[in-house]
């Protein structure tokens, strides 16, 4: 069975980006991101109501990283590594099947600049070569064409379209599943 044990949090770098661990100092930015209607339009998760709730989320999230349950990075530009502009990472890690779900979000000021694409290349490489994943999946809202297009651009293929499989805020919503297999 797959195990995620890293002696220290794996900071990653690309040409323009630093992918680093979440810090409590990121709480206000993450709170703003998770409460931005444009960012959350296709991310169906309950929103935290206070910065303190986000600080608790970051603490419990970092503990989950240490315990090998998931692994996610803050996206920051190299010229300002302390300023979070988004996040990317692996959630719902299925250790028995060497599979994890990738997810990402980015502040609208940085959309359409290749940031997520650059971060995806690095995290996919890390997922396959360092984490030893066999497959990576992405679960998107079928209305999120931008996310669909970036996944397809990076080799993901559609595995399924589930009808009304997700209940959120009083409605049943559809899901599309995309995957990328190592090999």
TrEMBL record:
Keyword terms, alphabetized: Transferase
Family matches, as SUPFAM superfamilies: Acyl-CoA N-acyltransferases (Nat)
Protein name according to UniProt: N-acetyltransferase
A GO term, aspect molecular function: acyltransferase activity, transferring groups other than amino-acyl groups
Coiled coil: none
Cited InterPro entries: Acyl_CoA_acyltransferase, GNAT_dom, N-acetyltransferase
The keyword Ribonucleoprotein belongs to this UniProt entry's keyword annotation: no
Top-rank taxon: Bacteria
